[in-house]
Known about the structure:
Number of domains: 2
CATH class of the largest domain: Mainly Beta
Shape: globular
Radius of gyration: 16 Å
CATH superfamily of the largest domain: Carbohydrate-binding module superfamily 5/12
Helix content: 10-25%
Order of helices and strands: HEEEEEEEEEEE
Strand order of the largest sheet: 1-3-4-6
Signal peptide: 1-21
Low-confidence stretches: 14-20, 128-132
Largest sheet: 4 strands, mixed
GO molecular function: carbohydrate binding; hydrolase activity, hydrolyzing O-glycosyl compounds
Keywords: Hydrolase, Signal
CATH topology of the largest domain: Seminal Fluid Protein  PDC-109 (Domain B)
Pfam families: CBM_5_12
Number of strands: 11
Distance between the termini: 30 Å
GO biological process, one term: carbohydrate metabolic process
CATH architecture of the largest domain: Ribbon
Amino acid sequence: MSFRTKALLSLLLLVATSAWxxxxxxxxxHYHQGEIVRYQGQTYEARQGHKAERGANWNPEAxxxxxxxxxxxxxxxxxxxxxxxxSKGQIVNYQGRSYRVRQGxxxERGANWNPxAAPSLWEALDGNVNxx
Length: 132
């Protein structure tokens, strides 16, 4: 088996096993910025540190100011598109991976600024894996 094949298999194993690493969201718990949780089958990242106060309805689905969804692979409106403006912090999907915009920019047509080719513009998230 070639080195490249072994490396690819190792990466796939890491990504597959990391899906179980996200803990379920719980009311009453303190969350740190960047922490990854699962809620009702969806993976979310905390946008800022906060305590999910009991009864406050600060779950990831209800509190978009506190949580960013990381997996929207079946929803094309979150897919990367050439010729579109992207704001810092925005999350998109490209070729089955999730990415966060590092700096606001216009993805110029023909410039090859897609998330896989322009790491200075995009941070790879890969669902539950936070690559920071």
